[in-house]
Amino acid sequence: MNRVYVCNCFGVTEEQVKKHADGGACTPRQIASACKAGTDCGSCVRRIQALLGRGACPRRELVDQGKPALTAVAPESAPVLDEAA
After folding, report:
1. Can you give the pLDDT at residue 85?
2. How many CA atoms lie within 13 A of 47 on its CB side?
3. DSSP state, 41?
């Protein structure tokens, strides 16, 4: 498997960022809350923004209602990543 790292500080891959986005993370700050990417040197924040795109946030309604937008569990369709690999 070819892994493309977005955040070298915490070893976060594009696949992980996309998984968190599928789970409801709509902003780099929400990605940071989910996996720490972007919280150390910050050089990956623009790449995270690019991965998130400018599309509509699927859970924006929850945010607008003051409810949590992130899920504690990844969607079933998200692959389970082997952290030891």
Report:
1. 45
2. 17
3. S
pLDDT digit string, tens, across residues 51-62: 988 666 656 666
Strand 5-7 relative to strand 12-13: parallel, antiparallel, unpaired?
Answer: antiparallel
d(Cα 74, Cα 24) in Å, to the nearest integer?
A: 9
Beta strands in 3-46 (DSSP E): 5-7, 12-13
Q: H-helix or E-strand containing 29?
A: helix 28-35
Query: 50 φ, ψ to 5°?
Result: -65, -40
pTM listed for this prediction: 0.64
Q: Quick check: 12 and 47 in contact, CB under 8 A?
A: no
57 phi-psi bin (left φ>0, alpha ψ -120 to 50, beta other): beta
Distance separating the N- and C-terminal Cα atoms of the chain: 10
